[in-house]
Design brief:
- There is one protein chain.
- With 321 residues, the chain is α/β, with parallel strands linked by helices.
- Helix content is 40%, strand content 20%.
- It is built from twelve helices and eleven strands.
- The longest helix is centred in the C-terminal third of the chain and has 21 residues.
- The protein is globular.
- The protein starts with a helix and ends in a 6-residue tail after the last helix.
Length: 321
Amino acid sequence: MRLLWNVLLLTACTLSGQNAWCQTYPSQPIKLVMPFAPGTGAEVALRVIAERLGNALNQPVVIENRPGAGSTLGADLVAKSAPDGYTLAASFNSSIAPGPLMYAKLPYDPIKSFHHIALVGVYPQYVIVKTDHPAQTMRELLAIVKAKPGTVNYASAGVGTSGFLAAELLKQTLGLNMTHIPYKGPSPAIADLLGGRLDMVLTASASELVKAGKVRVLAVTSAKRMPAFPDVPTLDEIAPGVQAVSWLGISAPAQTPRAITSRIEKELLAILNTPEMQARLSDPVVGMSPMALGPDKFLEFIQNEIRVWSPVIKLGNIRVD
């Protein structure tokens, strides 16, 4: 049935290079699937982008949270949706690359199942602890991990996320023994951290918690220190080579007519390249480094992520059933 839909839609949109149906896209609201629970900095960015994109397309762009399975549940939903431009994916490293490298079986192909329209930006993860944690610095925390192997636990937004990968690379580099506890998003993990059930969390959402005096930031996973926390070291300063960033992109189901994806791409890149949006994405609450890359460069970026993280995943024998 889906194949028949694809054929009919592609034929309609390419016949003689003109078709009223494609020319009038969109004629109804567009769903943007967010594969994590609410409360992330990335969702803040998405909501701003969705509002601007909706204005540009003259139709609402509605965000739908579909967390689960390390963000692959939401990606699979979009991969199997009708390729008509009315269901889009907020794509992440955990759902497209390198996260899927950890799955023995995945219900979609991260490359072939999508048309990756645009890369919005990249953002680091922060290592946070409660303000009353005995470790005042990342080096002190690592000393505790080494002194009590296997007793320190840490949380991420799920297996395959950059927080998880950063911790895995740190463990491999320094020979650490820590226990990973995956969550469906940062909000429940942070709640458990504040409740004393976790030792540390790797999350992209830290600024508001620091302002409220609830957590302390010990390190950041980016290559350079972040302007919002200039005194916080990178993990790379402590363990050279340990870097990891999350990334956010917008993707459509494969076989979505190019007339439609090109329209979305055009509007998205125009929005992302405005000074207002660049400033909004760089705001500490979002903490993103804007990229605004189109399909070709976005695909190159994804392929590079696969090359970089494949050996780490293989060495760690990381698998998700």
